[in-house]
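Aim 2 progress update. The chain analyzed this quarter is reproduced below.
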Amino acid sequence: MPESRQVELDPVVGRGWYDGEAQIMHRHSQGQLVYPTAGVLAVTTGRGTWVAAANGVAWTPAGFDHAHRAPARTEVVALMIPSELCTSLPDHPAVLGVSGLLREAMLALVAERTMRPQARDRLLGVVVDELTDAPEQSLYLPEPRDGRLRTVTELLRSDLADARTLTELGREAGASARTLSRLFRAELGMSFHQWRTQLRIQHALVFLWQGRSVTQTATLCGWSNPSSFVDAFSAIVGQTPGRYQAPQPQSADQPVTAR
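Predicted structure tokens:
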């Protein structure tokens, strides 16, 4: 098991940059929101990996072991949510959609200006209200426990463009396609095709953020034509690759303080 430690932070953490960094597993006594205003942030737990881009915020409940990783330069805004305000929020890690109001409330909470405690409390209430109604995004990749599934998923991770069928991959894993298909459904809650698509889209977010074109990204991630990639990306991320690549509001560089 990865090393884990308790991390205590102030109710409002701030904003800054991750740049290709990863953490050890840790947990908080309060809920945590980490919003990548620019870039891509992965949140890993024992259950799997969630990925948040600029239209999603990563939510981790209190007491949940997790680690953050930014595969490319990523600006984040981080907030701690007191436990008494978390009862209406998911009891599991998730990536939640970001409304315009939620974005502005979070940015106001981390702005470098003095804020009266009552005003801050009201803004935190707005954040929680917006999150309560926010849809969960499907950028989640569960981790398998079964050794045969792990063999298949590691093969897919090692080559995103691997187009082999489940039958072909099963020969290396020592299991039939029927057995593997059943395991994907029973253990991971999704089909082989869905898991592979989720894996590819998570990597596509990074490739696009790094400046690769839609066509290049589609090829790297295993799509034979860009239009199919655009359809899959839009269905999962909620916006087209071109919209995702549109410039985000600029912010001054600051050392990251989120954990």
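The domain at 4-132 is CATH 2.60.120.280 (Jelly Rolls). The mean pLDDT is 85. These observations will guide the mutagenesis experiments scheduled for the next reporting period.
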